[in-house]
Write a structure and sequence with these properties.
single chain, three-stranded antiparallel β-sheet, mainly alpha
């Protein structure tokens, strides 16, 4: 198995997942339709894809460029030896989860021409809230929700503007973005590949998957509000919350978010810690001014936070009078934090991007995209829970939902038969 892991990290990033998909079981959700065929097709043109791409960045991101991307995003990240070595050093137990890795890459390959992929890790406890809300929404809106769509927000938490408009307003109002405030409810922190930000504490989804951290969990009030939203009784909430015990595992859940290419800049932007725009000069100022300890070669959030708060206050007061702030705002307004432009380079010439492992992205929850079942966005969840446990969980969840809906419909029918005075 150890040799298989090394093969994945050092060699064939397309052919190997075909074998792994057959070898491993236990992946959550639907089978990846056509994934093996897609990967075999990709493998057949491997030699051509391995040719060095000497196009300029302008040529790659040009609207007239119709050449297929060289890599998927996770392939691009794994294509760099420095990243493979860092993954093997930082997460030596990754080989235990090659079923997840292979299926993630297969999904990316299947949707490479139509979607960009992003990764977020969530506590297992949120699965129930996601499933319950999505299924109740589907009950009220038949044929609108596909099996690939999941609601990740439940209380009308959204923003009705583009990512660019949101950034301009947020910067002018607050100085910097801070997704540790209420802003976190309207945005999703995501990596650009499965192992993105490897070795960076607090920003790597794969690390959160392997080593769950303390995150907010849905409390009873979340389910009470959900029952009110759909006009259902709340007497089954305890039974619902008991379902959390069925799929409890040592690892958390990774969510793969596939966003249609033409919509990615509408809801997303290139970011750094806490969701601030990935503005090189600002990032450099923060890093240069933190008090580093010897062990903080790649300082985590706790080390950076004091200076980020200080800079936020300075920006909020000085605004355009501050050269750093003025330059950042100018870059936002000119589209310098475009995800589509960055990901075109990421997928074709990853070796040319110095900050490839440093940047992240933020996706905004808007009614038209991440909260719209008809937007073309697809969500895939990966966990270490067994198929049998998932089957038990889904069966019991569906049974409780049927009881709640039956009681609501019976109550409605009774109300209609009561004579009107």
């Amino acid at each position: 198995m150890r040799n298989m892991m090394k093969s994945l990290l050092k060699g064939c990033l397309v052919g190997l997942p075909v074998a792994l998909l057959v070898f491993f079981g236990g992946i959550e959700g639907r089978a990846v339709r056509g994934s093996i065929a897609n990967l075999e097709k990709e493998e057949s043109v491997q030699a051509q894809r391995d040719q060095i791409d000497d196009r300029s960045p302008a040529e790659i991101v040009s609207p007239t460029n119709k050449k297929p991307d060289k890599f998927t995003q996770t392939e691009a990240h794994l294509s760099l030896k420095s990243m493979r070595d860092l993954i093997e050093k930082t997460y030596p137990d990754t080989e235990k989860h090659l079923n997840v890795v292979s299926t993630v890459i297969a999904n990316e390959a299947e949707h490479k021409d139509t979607h960009y992929a992003f990764y977020n890790t969530t506590s297992n406890s949120w699965r129930l809230a996601q499933d319950l809300y999505t299924r109740l929404y589907a009950y009220e809106n038949p044929d609108k929700v596909t099996e690939e769509f999941k609601f990740l927000r439940f209380n009308d938490e959204s923003v009705n503007e583009t990512a660019q408009g949101f950034l301009v307003n947020e910067l002018k109002t607050k100085g910097l973005v801070d997704d540790n405030t209420d802003t976190k409810f309207i945005m999703l922190s995501v990596n650009l590949s499965l192992f993105g930000n490897v070795g960076f504490p607090g920003e790597c989804s794969w690390q959160y998957f392997l080593k769950p951290q303390a995150h907010a969990k849905p409390v009873r009030a979340v389910y009470v509000q959900m029952m009110k939203r759909f006009g259902l009784t709340d007497k089954y909430i305890d039974q619902l919350m008991d379902l959390l015990n069925i799929y409890d595992t040592p690892e958390d859940t990774i969510i793969q978010v596939l966003v249609p290419i033409e919509k990615v800049d509408e809801i997303g932007y290139l970011a750094w810690v806490k969701g601030i725009p990935a503005h090189g000069d600002t990032i450099k100022w923060i890093r240069d001014n933190v008090k580093k300890r010897k062990q903080d070669l790649n300082p985590g959030f706790a080390v950076l936070d004091p200076k980020m708060k200080e800079l936020t206050a300075t920006f909020a007061e000085d605004k355009e009078k501050n050269p750093l702030f003025a330059d950042m705002l100018k870059n936002v307004e000119s589209g310098k934090f475009s995800l589509e432009a960055f990901l075109k380079l990421y997928r074709n010439t990853p070796w040319k991007i110095k900050e490839l492992n440093d940047v992240t992205a933020r996706l905004l929850f808007t009614p038209n995209v991440l909260l719209n079942p008809n937007s073309g966005v697809k969500f895939f969840r990966f966990s270490t829970v067994t198929k049998d446990k998932l089957k038990e969980y889904n069966s019991k969840l569906n049974g409780i939902i049927k009881k709640m809906i039956a009681e609501k419909e019976a109550k409605g029918a009774t109300a209609q038969t009561v004579p009107q005075k």
